[in-house]
Amino acid sequence: MRKIKTLLCLMLVFLIIFVSTGCSSGTSPEQTNAPESDVNTEPQPSDESDKSEDATIKFTDSAGREVEIPANIERIAPSGPLAQVVLYTLCPDKLVGLASDLSDLQFEYIDLKYKSLPVFGNFYADTLNLEAVMAAKPQVVIDIGEAKPTVKEDMQGVQDKIGIPSLFVHMELDKMAEAYRTLGKIVGEEEQAEKLAAYVEKTLAEAKENSASIPDADRVKVYYGQGDAGLTAVVKGTVHSDVIDTVGALNVADVEQSVRGGASDISMEQLMLWQPDAIMFAPGSIYSDVETRPEWKEINAVKNKKCYEIPDGPYNWVGRPPSVNRVIGIKWLGNLLYPDVYDYDMKTETKEFYKLFYHCDVTDEQIDKLLTNSTFKN
């Protein structure tokens, strides 16, 4: 009996020692979870925000300049009118100012809230207001358009003058889709950029196919005139004229440029020698009274009532400025000159384009106004 009691006492002692040792060497649930939280690398929202504000990236622009720009861009200054148009189509609410004033006509298609933006002037001209630029605090200046011979020096000069990263993105008609995609990455608007790029690509592809189908003998000879007398010709081969070439028509003004803006002053005698089949007049030129002017009566296009005025609002559809407004101009001019080839309903096309590019729901009345003088006279 005594042996049994002794054995039970020993077992009880061993049990107490085991339990005591197990508890002292184990870890609590809190201690077990602590290392897992230490290795969790997901940033907190505040940390992520701080990093995005300070982060920069290096971007090599179309002039070959490596420019350090913010990774997250919310405030942009356009370098000039052409950049202003493009950036408005892509990221209007990131514009902190305009390169040029907008007219009442333009505000029929552009939200009035942009009327309060300061006007900087043109970064390439003497109109630049440095104080206005600095007060607006843009993160970057973006120039868009043709690659001028001095573009590299020009952009560096702008950057040195204002102390703000300034970059150039090449955009001509055949480079427009590519430029949109590049700009979308720069300003963080890739979804909108892709929509715009896809529309441009589709329009140009259709124009290329349609133009190729037109026999040489059927190509329409076009004169594009502007100015008070209508005798300032937009010259063939310039960005202001490329809509004519793109749709498969022939610009009769195959002369040297003598006036700014891809134009040349010509004589009535020269125009009579060219005898265009159709005449496009720039808005504000002589469309409204050309038929009453004696000097124009011997021009075939006038005699045949094949004169029209380019739609204008918010921008000239053919090339003033030579920006994305030319894309709807391709559809309009193609449909006007070759309606069987460019089979578009221009009301539908105008509504789609204005919604996508100008963020504007145009009314039927507005479309009628745009196209009133833009069809052949009967």
CATH H-level homologous superfamily name of the largest domain: Nitrogenase molybdenum iron protein domain
CATH T-level topology of the largest domain: Rossmann fold
Oligomer state of the chains in this structure: single chain
Look at the structure and give the CATH class of the largest domain.
Answer: Alpha Beta
**Reported CATH architecture of the largest domain:** 3-Layer(aba) Sandwich
- Percent of residues in beta strands: 5-15%
The total tally of domains equals: 2
Major sheet summary line: 6 strands, mixed
* N-to-C order of helices and strands: HHHEEEHHEHEHHEEHEEHEHEHHH
End-to-end separation: 132 Å
Low-confidence stretches: 1-51
Count of alpha and pi helical runs: 14
